[in-house]
Specification:
about 110 residues; 10 strands; mainly beta
């Protein structure tokens, strides 16, 4: 399993959000460098974002969820064309960053 994992639950539909592109970035001074990119599976999960053996250095990272395409496929209007979640990594442990999403709001937390 990747050191960084995520999943998306569409809270309006009560179902996983399948087919959402997600990119992982690391902060480099005042810029962001893309490290990896993937798409959620039928369970709304992206478990293989990084190779299992790759560990990230302590620092600031973000996951960018490209939500506009997902809502367009549902013919749903959304206020958020994308969602960015910025977080800090301090150890080599596993980090799970879920997204609870609906067209006009979202929430996140550190999962397990």
């Amino acid at each position: 399993m990747s050191q960084i994992t995520t999943h998306i639950l569409d809270t309006t539909r009560g179902k996983p959000a399948q087919g959402v592109t997600i990119a992982l970035y690391s902060q480099q001074a005042d810029t962001w460098q893309e490290l990896a990119r993937g798409t959620t599976n039928q369970d709304g999960r992206l478990a293989g974002l990084l190779p299992q053996e790759q560990l990230l250095a302590p620092g600031t990272y973000k996951l960018k969820f490209f939500t506009q395409d997902y809502f367009d496929q549902l013919a749903a209007t959304t206020f958020y064309p994308f969602v960015e979640i910025v977080f800090a990594i301090s150890t080599a442990e596993h980090y799970h960053v879920p997204l609870l999403l609906n067209p006009f709001g979202y929430s996140t937390y550190r999962g397990s």
